[in-house]
Amino acid sequence: MHPITSYLRTLIRLKKSTLCVSADITSAEEMLALAYAVGPHIVVFKTHADILSGWDPDPDHGTGAQLAAIARQFRFLIFEDRKFADIGSTAQLQYAGGDYRILEWAHIVNAHVISGPDMVRALKETANTWKMPTEDTFKAVNLGKSALKRKGVAVKAPTHTREELADLEALPTPKRGLLLLAQMSSAGNLLNAEYTSACLAIARQHQDFVMGFIALEPLNSDPGDEFLVMTPGCSLPPDQSLDDSEFVPGTEDALGQQYVTPQDLMLKGCDIIIVGRGICNAAEPSMKADQYRKVAWEAYQKRLGLTEE
Known about the structure:
The chain is globular. Strand 7, helix 10 and strand 8 form a beta-alpha-beta unit. The longest helix has 20 residues, at 285-304. Helix 2 packs across helix 7 (143-150) and helix 4 runs parallel beside helix 6 (117-127). It has twelve helices and eight strands. The protein starts with a helix and ends in a 5-residue tail after the last helix. By secondary structure, the chain is of the alpha/beta class. An eight-stranded parallel barrel has the order 1-2-3-4-5-6-7-8, surrounded by eight helices.
């Protein structure tokens, strides 16, 4: 099992959460505030760095470093939804360079395999060059907390015990992982069964870097497969919504995104549900995130035949 997958499963157990919040917003300051608001309830926080205005590229105290500090405080992983899809040398530059320097702060990234398996190898080579910064890099980074306070939202400390947090002090080695886009939730997408099979074959060739898939169902079929599946297009039905900020499951939005309930995704065997606008557009994102967490966790427990302690 990939070390980050193992670490993520520990997060799932200790935080009783299978939730990834997608920061479907367009301001870096609001993104940091959202991370603080939902941090206690999630195991993964998904970003789109290139849609954010006000991104600070400073490597030590900029937006990426601030988000990394928030993730360390609340114990969640950062997933930059970059969807690499170019030749290997270009993908390497996109991963490590430019203003975003994704490699420095995102534990997880994803990629299409349309350009072939060598792009996966290229990203892995770049990831293997990364070294964890010293603790001093993160000591004074509290701008995400300040952004939340400026919005008038109270900042709550993590709810875990000291003993549980101690178990999560060290990030896994290697410390970076890749998800392959094997299936998509948008109507009319071209990721057919043959493409999905190709993704699985490539993943098996790079199990030291590929930790799983963006997919609509589990893809493990061989005895040695231990890939994780994260699934987008998740929405609560209207009768369960706290504030009607969701799209109706079983329908599409105006641009073809299709939605499924968290219960259905968990019972189908998915590992992590991805929720974006249903939480980002909520009047109280923290409260809504906790609702999704509880609903998905109950279904997850039911799937495993477990009961709450």
